[in-house]
Design brief:
The complex is a heterodimer of chains A (about 625) and B (about 300). Chain A is α+β, with helices and mostly antiparallel strands and about 625 residues long. Chain A has four domains: about 1-230, Rossmann fold (3-Layer(aba) Sandwich); about 240-325, Elongation Factor Tu (Ef-tu), domain 3 (Beta Barrel), CATH 2.40.30.10; about 335-450, Beta Barrel (Elongation Factor Tu (Ef-tu), domain 3), CATH 2.40.30.10; about 460-635, Rossmann fold (3-Layer(aba) Sandwich), CATH 3.40.50. In chain B, α1 (about 15-30) packs across α2 (about 45-55). Chain B is globular, with a radius of gyration of 20 Å.
């Protein structure tokens, strides 16, 4: 039978057979189940290991091998130094081979639980999975975990390779017991095809050729099966989708939108819609370069997987991350809140309320995990309640993005339903997500239930929230300085809000007068509002005369230590009277206003203000700069 | 309604590989500020450049080609490089490690130190000088075991160092392109191509390659079991050696004293493809620098080699 394999390899030496199909698969399963050995064996039996690599394999087998005098095929694929030393697979390795009919890309993925994220990397681009099981051990937690992840990532075709049959005496009963156990366990995983093959990777039984020792097995050998299997996915049809990757604008005469068709097909002359803006246009041309690069090839149609450039019949505003779909018919979802399965890969656990970046369909946006609905126990598929999700764990979460994103449920279309999560500080890829469905504001989510706290609010704004409490006499320049400070903060990209005495008295506090009691209540309310704004993560500027020490102290006590910055705008009464911008001193002195601070009501100057501004002899600009400098010193931003 | 969702499994493999590479290149141009393409003049670079010309058509590829010139490249390679850049109107940056040149670092006297200085260090120098944040390379995963483990978007720290045990997970075709100042990403659009794919694609697209790939009569000397071609008079004969004219070609092109020729009659693309398909040694067997020890490429890559 080895001769057959040789013939097969020889047959493809005719370059006329250049066009084959491509099958992407992954091998997974528990540690020591023999994944690397199986791949090595596939390459070796298919005569696809070049002589120089065989020579180095023989050399390496003596140094690192775990198979005694035999060739250790695992060494063909375990490429990293640490892997050779430890005799395990750490990272996903990609292996390539081709037969007459197909080119294969194998992602060989690690079994150890701490490298699950690398297994997920391999699974995300695979169309079929070979799940290795050690015949002696049967189904282990890692087998179940990998079967679950394979299913979660939308792989619908599985080969269960029951390996090391030589070590159980090639017993049919062992094989059948494992088949039954897997069938029972995988019922919920929704595979379209499951093929069980008993084999010995080390000795080559049922890899490329039948096994005399297992004459009882009537099914296909592994390689012929992989050549034949139809790994297409069946399900609900998805309409045309193409995220815009790059706007192609080499000159004024050409404006095209480059991208790869992610589902369905588009035909020249067809009406398309651009999401999220919902503008319509007609596809005037579908452009690719011709092979000799001498000019354009105009396509009649582009279908799923094609990298093309669309030219439209009219000028509309389209940028990277917008998604083309057909006008009418099946359209993707546009939403800023959705539920998704998340596989966590970050070293630090996932907590609800933390902000991350989300990338999908050529767009990167801010996102917050608003709720961890439940974790999934991969052994039992039970739902576990959780406050955090650790590395390699899987959870169903609700997410909220800073702006609407365009997507399909992952089950409907892998290409437009998947996202990654990126840590904003380290830039590490910390999560892989598969969208289930959109959440609509009215139904599933209520803000008061969310665990978005002050830390989350401030983290997303990249600042420490504080209260800048400007106190001073009427006309001292509080509002002028506060306004300048806010403008400067705004220019620095900070999130701010001003509570100004006059503004607030027109609304929230319009029921209050200027008696001492009302002044106290006035300040109490302002203090409470300022506290809410600090909770919201804002740099809150309060510009109030606030003449009494105790009320300022009360406001200070509402927020945490270090969050209250008292700024004394110190302008002598005489100067204030002289400025009298609003003509109030004149009225107060004339007795037309009662209880006017500094005239007929006391002002208690701060004793230890965080910032003491003397406005005489300094421009408002200079005083505002002092405040900004102080904020920098405190590490507010 | 039930239908086959993805037709991908029935699409020709070269079309899938081409579409994937184009997608990767567009992603880089859309997300990085200052990308470049490392152009080594070999067949893989020729394919990579061809794909770039397709990816951005009708625009020109919006990045320069960077060639690290060790001063030991075949003359035909340099001529081909300059002709190609001119033909497509591309920016070409040629960088040589001047300190190494001044010290006369050469492949005969300095062995692997030569590779380190004139290739790895020169490359890092060029990347730092021009502050590229993403650099395309033509490496393929089938070439060598540590390459088989590398991501398509492969992160490098501010010292251009690769950390193979701590690679970012790479999911679907959603590439994490975020880096801090000084860090960079090496991008390998041909990751999933094999040597066969490269040749079949060159044939399908009729891509021009350096003539050294085609068999011709050339002067060579047998040394250490390899055939080394005399490209200039810097190659001096040792005792007992002599030049012979043989019908040879190159399966891979690098610095001429470090790249062995193979005896071959294949002087057409068809013949080359047939030869590659039946080859029983790997392509890098002709590369002298890869044979130091089992993990030599991983070491070089960790140090910053492409």
């Amino acid at each position: 039978m080895a001769a057959d394999t040789q013939m097969m390899v020889n047959a493809e030496q005719n370059p006329a057979h250049a066009q084959k199909t491509l099958l992407r698969l992954l091998t997974c399963g528990s540690v020591d189940d023999g994944k690397s050995t199986l791949i090595g064996r596939l390459l070796y039996d298919s005569r696809l290991v070049p002589e120089d690599q065989l020579a180095s394999l023989a050399r390496d087998s003596k140094v690192y091998g775990t198979t005694g005098e035999d060739m250790d095929f695992a060494l063909l694929v375990d490429g990293l130094e640490a892997e050779r030393e430890q005799g395990i697979t750490i990272d996903v390795a990609y292996r390539f081979f081709a037969t007459k009919r197909r080119k294969f890309i194998i992602a060989d993925t690690p079994g150890h639980v701490q490298y699950t994220r690398n297994m997920v990397t391999g699974a995300s681009t695979a169309e079929l999975a070979i799940l290795m099981v050690d015949a002696r051990k049967g189904l282990l937690e890692q087998t179940r975990r990998h079967a679950f992840i394979v299913s979660l990532l939308g792989i619908r075709h599985v080969v269960v390779a029951i390996n090391k049959m030589d070590l159980v005496g090639y017993a049919q009963a062992v094989f059948e017991e494992i088949c039954e156990a897997f069938t029972a366990f995988s019922e919920a995983l929704g595979f379209e095809s499951v093929q069980f093959i008993p084999l010995s990777a080390r000795h080559g039984d049922h890899v490329t050729k039948p096994s005399d020792a297992m004459a009882w097995y009537e099914g296909p050998c592994l390689l012929p099966y992989l050549e034949e299997v139809d790994a297409g996915r069946r399900g609900e049809a998805c309409g045309f989708r193409m995220p815009v990757q790059w706007v192609n604008r080499p000159n004024l005469d050409f404006r095209g939108f480059s991208g790869t068709v992610a589902a369905g097909a588009v035909t020249k002359g067809e009406k398309v819609c651009v999401l999220p803006s919902r503008q319509n246009a007609v596809v005037r041309d579908i452009v690719v370069a011709n092979s000799d690069l001498s000019g354009a090839l105009s396509l009649e149609q582009a279908a799923s997987g094609d990298a093309v450039t669309l030219v439209l019949d009219r000028e509309i505003d389209i940028s990277r991350g917008d998604v083309f779909c057909c006008e009418g018919g099946d359209q993707p979802v546009v939403a800023d809140q959705f539920a998704a399965e998340v596989i966590w890969m970050g070293e630090a656990p996932l907590y609800a309320g933390r902000p991350y970046l989300l990338k999908m369909n050529a767009r990167t946006v801010n996102v917050t995990i608003t709720a961890i609905k439940h974790k999934v126990d991969v052994e039992t598929f039970n739902k576990l309640s959780a406050k955090s999700v650790a590395m390699n764990e899987i959870a169903v979460c609700n997410l909220a993005t800073s702006e609407p994103v365009v997507f399909d449920p992952y089950e409907k279309n892998r290409e437009t339903g998947a996202f990654i999560l990126i840590d904003r500080l380290t830039n590490a890829t910390v999560g892989a997500g598969m969208i289930r469905f959109a959440l609509h504001r009215a139904g599933n989510i209520g803000f008061e239930k969310l665990k978005i706290d002050k830390a989350a609010h401030s983290e997303i704004k990249g600042q420490k929230p504080v209260v800048l409490w400007f106190t001073g006499l009427s006309g001292s320049g509080k509002s002028t300085v506060a306004n300048l400070v806010e403008q400067k903060l705004y220019a620095l990209g900070r999130h701010t809000y001003i509570l100004d005495g006059d503004n607030v008295r027109h609304g929230l506090n319009r029921d209050l007068g200027f008696t001492d009691a009302d002044r106290v209540e006035n300040i109490r309310r302002i203090g409470e509002v300022a506290k809410l704004m600090v909770d919201a993560g804002l740099i809150t500027l309060v510009s109030f005369i606030s003449p009494f020490r105790s009320e300022r102290q009360q406001a200070r006590s509402l927020v945490q230590e270090g969050e209250f910055i008292e700024i004394f705008v110190d302008t002598p009464l005489a100067v204030c009277q002289q400025r009298d911008v609003k003509g109030l001193y004149k009225k107060a002195l004339a007795g037309e206003i009662q209880n006017f601070t500094g005239i007929s009501s006391p002002y208690e100057p701060p004793q230890n203000p965080e910032v003491h501004l003397q406005t005489v002899g300094q421009t408002p600009e200079e005083t505002a700069d002092r405040v900004i400098a102080h904020l920098r010193e405190r590490g507010v931003f | 309604m039930t239908a086959v969702l993805k037709q991908d499994v029935s699409r020709p493999h070269l079309k899938r590989l081409e579409d994937e590479a184009i997608y990767i290149m567009r992603e880089v141009v859309a997300e990085f500020k200052n990308p470049a393409m490392l152009y080594s003049i070999g067949k893989d670079s020729s394919v990579m450049l061809h794909l770039a010309l397709k990816a951005f058509y009708p625009a020109r590829p919006p990045f320069p080609l960077v060639h690290v010139d060790t001063t030991w490249k075949f003359k035909e390679m340099i001529a081909f490089r300059d002709r190609t850049a001119a033909k497509y109107g591309l920016d070409l940056i040629v960088h040589t490690n001047e300190a190494g040149r001044a010290d006369h670092i050469n492949p005969f006297d300095h062995g692997s130190y030569y590779t380190h200085v004139m290739k790895t260090e020169a490359l890092k120098e060029a990347l730092s000088k021009y502050k590229f944040d993403a650099v395309f390379g033509g490496a393929r995963r089938d070439e060598e075991k540590s390459r088989a483990k590398e991501r398509i978007f492969s992160f490098r720290d501010e010292n251009h160092v690769w950390a193979p045990k701590n690679q970012r997970p790479e999911l679907w075709n959603i590439y994490n392109t975020r880096i801090k100042d000084g860090e960079s990403i090496r991008v390998f659009p041909l990751s999933n191509w094999t040597e066969q794919d490269i040749w079949q694609y060159i044939m399908q697209e009729n891509i021009e390659i350096v003539p050294l790939y085609y068999a011709a009569r050339r002067p060579v000397v047998a040394r250490g079991g390899m055939l080394i071609m005399a490209d200039d008079d810097r190659l001096t004969l040792k005792d007992g050696e002599a030049f012979e004219e043989k019908m040879v070609r190159f399966r891979t092109l690098g610095c001429y004293p470090l790249t062995a020729a193979i005896e071959s009659e294949a002087d057409t693309l068809e013949a080359i493809v047939a030869e590659v398909l039946s080859a029983n040694t790997s392509e890098r067997a002709g590369r002298l620098i890869d044979q130091d020890d089992a993990a030599s490429m991983e070491k070089k890559k960790r140090e910053g080699y492409f």
